[in-house]
Amino acid sequence: MTTRYAKIIMSLALAAFAFMVTFNNISDYASNFAFVSHVLSMDTTFPDNAAMYRAISTPALWHAAYWLIILGEGLTCVLLALGAGALWRARRADATRFARAKKGVIAGATLGFLVWFFGFMVVGGEWFLMWQSKIWNGQEAAFRFYMALLGVLIFVNQADNEPA
Fold it and tell me: For this UniProt entry, which segments traverse the membrane (predicted)?
């Protein structure tokens, strides 16, 4: 049962993290919007780099991209919380039923991985060359986020024994 409780607690901790990120992005919209607008406009990348054709300078598209990020973070929170709830309800069930209850956590961790790895590393980091910015580079933070998600995803996916 200890392993099952650990999976539930870790899933709840990830849900709380995704909640706080979503809350912060909404409650401090301007600060975090500045990050998105600078990354997408590529205004702090190396001068005269050959990839500037990728830059987006339309504020409406910055807002759309930012709301897509917030939506992904919020859905990550909801899926992880619902998944943790399903694990809680199945904590005393047989191993097969507990394994079926992992779907929400798996979906939430996968979506979170897509937000922070694909969104911040692939799109932000490589397409918009965020790595070139000394000020607006969120790759280290994104790495911490998606590695935590990946670690819990691997742990939750481990097979479970029958409850004691």
Answer: 65-88, 109-129, 141-159
Residue 164 pLDDT class (50, 70, 90 cuts): low
59-97 tens-digit pLDDT:
999 999 999 999 999 999 999 999 999 999 999 999 999
Q: Helices 103-113 and 59-89: crossing angle, nearest 10°?
A: 160
Q: Find out whether 120 and 139 touch, Cβ atoms under 8 Å.
A: yes
**CA distance to 21, 122, 125, 139, per residue, from 116 (Å):** 11, 9, 11, 9
Give per-residue pLDDT as tens, 116-163: 999 999 999 999 999 999 999 999 999 999 999 999 999 999 998 777
- Look up residue 37 and give its amino acid: S
Answering whether pTM is above 0.85, one says yes
What are the domain boundaries of the chain?
A: 2-44+53-157
